[in-house]
Amino acid sequence: MAEKLVYFFGGGKAEGTGKMKELLGGKGANLAEMANLDIPVPAGFTITTAVCTYYYEKGRTFPSTLEKDVQTALEGMESVMGAKFGDSPNPLLVSVRSGSRSSMPGMMETVLNVGLCSSTIPGLIAQTGNSRFVFDSYRRLIMMYSDVVMEKAAGIEVAEGKEIRQQLDRMLGEMKKARGRASDADLTADDLQELVAAFKAKVKEVLGKDFPDDPREQLWGGIGAVFASWNGKRALSYRRIEGIPDEWGTAVTVQAMVFGNKGDTSATGVAFTRNPATGENKFYGEWLPNAQGEDVVAGIRTPNPLNEDTQNEQNRHLPSLQKAMPEAYIQLDGIRTALGRHYKDMMDIEFTVQDGRLWMLQCRVGKRTGTAALNMAMDMLAEGLIPKEEAVLRVSPAQLDELLHPIVDPNAEKNARPIARGLPAGPGGACGQIVFTAGDAVEWTKRGKKVILVREETNPEDVEGMRAAAGILTARGGMTSHAALVARGWGKCCIVGAGGLEVDLHRKTVTAEGNVLREGDAITLNGTRGHVYSGSLPMMDATQNPRFVEFMALADSIRRLRVRTNADTPEDAAKARAFGAEGIGLFRTEHMFYGKGSEAPLFLLRKMIVSKDEPERRAALLELYPFVKKDIKDTLSVMDGLPVTIRLLDPPLHEFVPSGQEEREKLAKALGITVEQLALRADDLHESNPMMGHRGVRLGVTFPEITEMQVRAVFESAAELTALGKKVFPEIMVPVVGMASELVNQRVLVEKVHGEVCAKHGVRRIEHLFGTMIEVPRAALTADLIAGAAEFFSFGTNDLTQMTFGFSRDDTGTFVPEYLEKKLLPRDPFQVLDQEGVGQLVRMAVERGRSARPKLKVGICGEHGGEPSSVEFCHRVGMDYVSCSPYRVPIARLAAAQAVLREKGIRD
Ligand code: ADP
Ligand code: MG
Ligand code: MG
């Protein structure tokens, strides 16, 4: 490989920069950036992601020049740190760290204290005079290395509970118990020395190999294992959930160790430059004295608060860093300010204090809740830190979605008593049935249950279960614990460190203040407050945050696409208006035949369907008319001033034929025929492929009186409302059109009825548009011809996807999951518009349609109209609007604004 493989940093400068995330991974790039800012960072070097690609392409081998480059960089580290790797009297120890382009907290591996062995241990003890620290570091090395390198990277699969890490953990626990030591930090040098010997014997026994005693073997073992961890189980599932491409690969950073476990003047911690849960501009963090790396994140002990702002019920009794190590704290606070100014974003940082001296080990843009994202974007805008365009990019559509999610009804909560309190790690409310394992969370959710995953503490292996659960509750861990971090990133309701809980995995119970809850019992979480309730409390929508309104106004000032809603009832229409919908893009008349209040109209529809001839049908339609008209009129009235697209009856009629005996008897009686005669008529309606049968425009062509009735309802409503001073803009939309001739056929009917209603009301014209759905591939292909008869197109991308793929919308469950699993499909095309295939038809139809009718209005009304990447596509092909369900309206508004900013090259 000709390119540079290794990038050095340390001593106040670096070869890389923060912009080089693709090559150095986020961790490596930001370590370089901090070194360049002259922030104290232990020296190190980063092996690029290109080496990772090489490693996988070339059968897990390294480029030939890598060894030499690593050696050179190692020598650079040695001279900055004043110690030598593998040297007996003055050994340098290193960490081997993973880091991909986009952060995957806890999903890949890191090995600390590499370089400790029989030849370096005595030297380090002599040098530091602290044998407890040296053996503590060594036992950590053995635990991490045997797990990461000797077991996982070697591809050894073991039964749950039999992992080497777990076995060593148990030995550690037994040692603590036997010696009466309350925590890891209480183990003495002698305890640890004994433990180390036992660990090595255990490793040999379980893995059949000696623990490597050669620093260089350890180093290269570590480097290979980090690359291998890119394809570890956890990393793979996390990537699938987050949509991170497998090709990116990880970088490896080798960095000089600094030690937070050297005694009481040493410490390690994690902090956020602003509060990641609320967005408040306050320094927020946790730390542990005499500890190393993972200890804080793993939730092994309750961590101390960083400062007063970080105190809570769990940690109030523990000293803050501000009090315990004021000098280090002041320096850290200064770095917080510098990073805030430099990155203009909230950063998540890792630090270690060694003998009172502060070192920075990581910084990255921090994960945050939707609330925090919104508040920080608006704060930073007000502070003049970022421009409005940047502020709009700071809240992702998914985070916005989270803001619209339910919370525990405060009134109900007032009267309920929490059975436990923990830390508010992930926002909103959730209630569900208790499960105790990640596997059960996935399993139960698949069966349609809502579950709360209750754990002692979570570890990265639980990620799929955490994803599946409606909420997460842990007995241990702090705000920076793994569970909290991951939940916050997903906007999932989560409470950690609920100290009063006792989780018994064997009995599958959780006990809180004497209440024993079992698997399957209902439990409610308020993740915003950290309160846990037994039973299920009612939920409600988050109240309108004024900042939400301000933020949406910013987005609206940027977007070009209009956003409408799919609404079938006046209530939905009103709700969508409140969410900012600028019209209805799809009003389905058939909704009135389903659900509440549908009995009377459904009966009349059925009567119409099984009519034997036109006169009988017309009589039934006449009876149905008032229902249809009321529905349309109410909706047009709610949408006063805004357009409403009314789709003519679409579904295959036989869907509505009753199957029950009693209903059939009633219907037969109303028609004056026998049940047998009715059965014959119903059989006539049967179709082998109803989805492609007698539906949509085909109904209107064969039964023109059906179209006439609906169109009359539209025009009569419009004329009456106009007379009342309302501004109504109905748009009549014909479904399932494949040919221009079909549309012309329907237009004749529409014009005839329009003339009749105008005459009746004594007006010259009733304002309206006439157009079609584009949902049959042939319509897209002949869009220029179709546009001759249509004033607007609305893409029905559900059917268009169905017919372009030849996938039945109603049967995808049988094969699409497997297609996704096997990566034959990148995404479910019914959720995320297939831009590569279906998108071509859409693009072509827009172009051809506009070539025939330049002012053609174009929108989308399929499910995709509320999915951010699809909205961006709609923007790019020049649509006028997207239409989506009421709750997706704000998301579409934001996605439409972000599409403009991305198009202009303003990236987030
Ligand atoms: P992750 O990507 O899972 O956060 P890291 O590479 O950041 O893993 O390392 C895990 C822990 O070890 C972190 O807390 C980190 O601060 C600590 N750590 C990593 N390298 C060093 C080092 N050179 N000296 C001291 N602590 C380190
Ligand atoms: Mg880290
Ligand atoms: Mg359709």
Your description of this structure?
The chain has 908 residues and is of the alpha/beta class. The protein has 35 helices and 34 strands. It has an eight-stranded mixed β-sheet. α17 links the parallel β17 (429-435) and β18. It is elongated. The two termini are 32 Å apart. The protein binds adenosine-5'-diphosphate and magnesium ion (2 copies).
Q: Would you kindly provide a brief summary of this structure?
A:
This protein is 44% helix and 17% strand.
Mean pLDDT: 92
Proportion of residues in extended strands: 15-25%
Helix content: 40-55%
**Rg over alpha carbons:** 33 Å
- The number of helices is 35
Sketch the major β-sheet: 8 strands, mixed
Distance between the termini: 32 Å
Category from helices, strands and their pairing: alpha/beta
Ions, cofactors and other ligands present here are: adenosine-5'-diphosphate, magnesium ion
Show unreliable segments.
none
